[in-house]
Design goal:
Keywords: Signal. With about 120 residues, the chain is mainly β. It is built from one helix and eight strands. The longest helix is centred in the N-terminal third of the chain and has 16 residues, at about 1-15.
């Protein structure tokens, strides 16, 4: 559990503080679509805000444009299943009211499902 919290803290710190380029904000109905960028111009994060709080689906990318995280916010709080990719490991983290409920790691060598 400590590893999961540390990993999440590092991921969000890197994503939030590595940006120098000004974000783009676009009104979509009652929400605002926000896109943040890395210094090299690649998208860092994209998602929606409602009344100034993160809300709905969010995606995070590394400086090469590779997806490193995806999940949902509800009124500024992480909720539901979040996925974090690092090398050959997919980490599935379940959140409830911004708290970690469960963490599961998947590696590429594991077969998740087989269609016959």
């Amino acid at each position: 559990m400590k590893k999961a919290v540390f990993f999440l803290a590092i991921m969000f710190s890197v994503c939030m503080f590595s940006q120098e380029t000004k974000p783009t904000l676009e009104k979509v109905g009652k929400m605002v679509k926000a896109t943040y960028f890395h210094e090299n111009g690649e998208v860092s994060q994209t998602g929606y805000m409602l009344k100034g709080k993160l809300h709905g689906d969010w995606l995070m990318f590394d400086t090469n444009g590779k997806k490193i995280a995806s999940g949902k916010y509800d009124n500024g709080k992480k909720t539901g299943k979040w996925f974090f990719w690092k090398e050959d490991v997919l980490r599935e983290v379940d959140f409830s009211d911004n708290r970690i409920v469960n963490v599961k790691d998947w590696s590429q060598s594991e077969v998740v499902s087989v269609n016959k």
